[in-house]
Amino acid sequence: MMQKYPIGIFDSGVGGLWVLKEIKKLLPCESINYFADSGNCPYGSKTKDEALSLAKKNIEFLLKLKCKLIVVACNTVTAVAIDNFRSKYKVPFIGMEPAIKPAAMQTTSKKIGILATENTFNGRLFKQSFEKYANGIDVFVQPGHGLVELVEQGRQNSKKAQSLLEEYLLPMMEKGVDTIVLGCTHYPFLKQIIKKVTKNTLTIIDPAHAVAAQTKRILLECDLISNAGNDPKFHFYTTGEKTIVEKFLSHEMDSPYRLEQIQV
To answer: Which residues, given as ranges, of the chain have pLDDT below 50?
Structure first.
């Protein structure tokens, strides 16, 4: 019975739609409920307690919708609270793992850059991945101040976005960085402008596919995967402006869906 229940995904805004795309591609029979807390975005600049409180509301909203597994498509929340959620709730949780391992494997200069939020850098998962996989690698970290807000406004290809990315990425390149990790789910929407700023000379590591693969593994392990032939449904909820989410969905979704503006 639970196999027919939807996957729940939440993020502080539209960033997790990139993760949803990968999950939908890998698990085409799964129904998905996506919650964008754009009204409280960004999470990266909030205190740990604030991020935890907001995330709990999101989770409890998705659990009321009978979600069988929850993807925390937010690096900040994963960093500060994923352990708490796994101990408190009965459903499986998938978080955003810092993609230091693939970056360390792909760099030829042995120098990688990570663009993320400060809460992500301060989290246990980042420190654990750093200690495990960054031996012999120079790692340059850069908080991406202002980038999430631009993506939420649909200005990911704006001059302002280009200016900020030049400020953040060019100093890393001058130090020999040849691989950049996108440590926030909003940042893949900036890929085209990143390629422009870096003249397409950096390897870009986006963890969304790995998150989708882990979601599939856990569904199989827990006997929760939907049967072939299931007619999937896609419901989207936002605490922000519907027009912003609609704009992204019109580009990214190739299936019928329902979108609602809510308060939680």
So the answer is: none
